[in-house]
């Protein structure tokens, strides 16, 4: 593989991960929790970024050196475990994708004025178009890069438009006045939980970037993906904080749209349409692609007709959205669901990192292993605390 092509794939994998994370759920969660916690939400973002780094670097490296998809690795750790994880990932990916389709509808509706259901179908159609062409992988890489750039530039502009209290944000990021465990697990789950954790790693594997010799490239791609997602979250937080600090009320029916409109009037509302549509369509692609990559373990015949299964996954997500509706609530719950899945998947890959039968002579960095174990423990504790609270215990 040529270096230029390598770089294109590395960028594509990074942006596939980042734009999978920066979906409608990401935009909705960040807006809702910033309104709830104010400047203290900066601490939640900092914590989630640190957890994200620990997750992605561990997962991508183990996938690369094992030269296997995550569920195949899990089956080698414990027979049958990969199938269990695959079911959880596919269900979590489907839940997220229902919200992603709804997000595409909300974004395109803001741009065109057409009804949200009609726009949701049109947005899903754009995603379907990617997998109807012969060079779907290359087109997916390019689309993720372009949409990622659009997301970053637009959200940075809106953030500066709201004149957020930067000093207060910086202070409360280090010394928060309030803390919400649910927001941390939802953010981490929405950024690197479930299928999102594996989107970039599986993409590199499919593109032939694998083995211990490829680890420097894998690490660069993972760090770039985390950086893009983190940059967008920080600026969206600042944009929302700028609106909240002015005492303006955010519309609960469509929180991100409300922030953009309050920040920059009708132009802001149109910009929201661009951001939400770009985020949603790229997330539909990332969710479908990665979820089906897990389904191959349960149903080996999927590999022969992968694009058809991806198209079917997108169609099913669209039909479920048209039946269920309520994209805001679906997106919040999907993030929390994927946060519960994360300790199991990351813990499994950490065990695999020390199985020579899986990774050969590769030696996993101790600092990454310790960081990964801490993430597993923290996320298990947070998930348990949230579950007990939900059960009234």
Describe this structure in words.
The chain has 393 residues and is mainly alpha-helical. It has one domain: Up-down Bundle (Amino acid/polyamine transporter I), CATH 1.20.1740. The chain is 82% helix and 0% strand. It has helices at 3-21, 24-37, 41-66, 70-77, 81-112, 116-130, 136-161, 166-174, 181-192, 196-206, 215-245, 255-298, 306-324, 327-352, 356-359, 366-390. The model has no long low-confidence stretch (mean pLDDT 82).
Topology:
Layout: H1 3-21, H2 24-37, H3 41-66, H4 70-77, H5 81-112, H6 116-130, H7 136-161, H8 166-174, H9 181-192, H10 196-206, H11 215-245, H12 255-298, H13 306-324, H14 327-352, H15 356-359, H16 366-390
How is the biggest beta sheet arranged?
A: none
Question: What is the share of helical residues?
Answer: over 70%
Average pLDDT: 82
Top-tier CATH class: Mainly Alpha
> What's the SSE pattern?
HHHHHHHHHHHHHHHH
**Quick one: overall form?**
globular
Instruction: Give the strand tally.
Output: 0
**Main structural class:** mainly alpha
Number of helices: 16
CATH architectural type: Up-down Bundle
What is Rg?
20 Å
Span of the ends, CA to CA: 55 Å
The CATH homologous superfamily:
Amino acid/polyamine transporter I
Low confidence ranges: none
Number of domains: 1
* Beta-strand fraction estimate: under 5%
CATH domain topology: Amino acid/polyamine transporter I
